[in-house]
Write a structure and sequence with these properties.
mainly alpha, hpI Integrase, Chain A, 3 strands, 46% helix, globular
Length: 179
Amino acid sequence: MAQKLIRYIEIDDFKKVLKAEKDKRFKLAYALGFGSGLRISEIVGPAPNSNQDIKPLTMEQVDLEKHQIRIFGKGAKERITVTSPMLNETNIKLLPLKIERRTLQNHWTKLCHKVLGKKLPFHTLRHGWANYLLNHPDPKKRVSLPVLQILGGWSRMDTVGIYAKANPVKAIESAWESF
C-alpha cells in the first residue's frame, strides 16, 4: 500500500495567512501551531466529547527566557518544546485563549481558503512546523529526526519519519546536491 503524503503549510503561505489575520488571539494560536508545533488540543483544550484530560495552554507554561513551553498533551504525556520567535511578553498574556476548538479550526480553514485558495485544517500548522525544521533552507539550521521527535512529542520514530518524506521536491534536491 502506498503511503499518503502529509499536507502541510509552507512558511511563505503561513506568513500570508498570519498577515491577513486581525484578531490577536487567532494570531497567537497560529504562532503556537506553526512556530512551536502545538496541537489544537494543546492550545485550547480537547474536543468536548474527548476523553483526553488536556488543559488549555496558560502563560505560566511559557518561559520566554529559556525559549521553551511545557506541554501537558495527548496521552497524558508531558514534554518541553521550543517557543515560537513570534511569542512575546504581550501576546502570551492572552493565554489561556478563550476560543472554542471548533471556532478556531473553522476560522483557520476559512482564512486559508480566502488567502491561499486552499482548505487547510489547523493540524497542517504542526505539519508545517515539523517540515520546516527538518527541511530548513539553511542546512545548518535543520534539526535531526530525534530532536524533532522530542520537541513534537511523538513516541515512535517512524511517525516522525513521515515529515522527512513530506517534501519530495526538497528530498530530490538534497539527494542531487550530495553527488
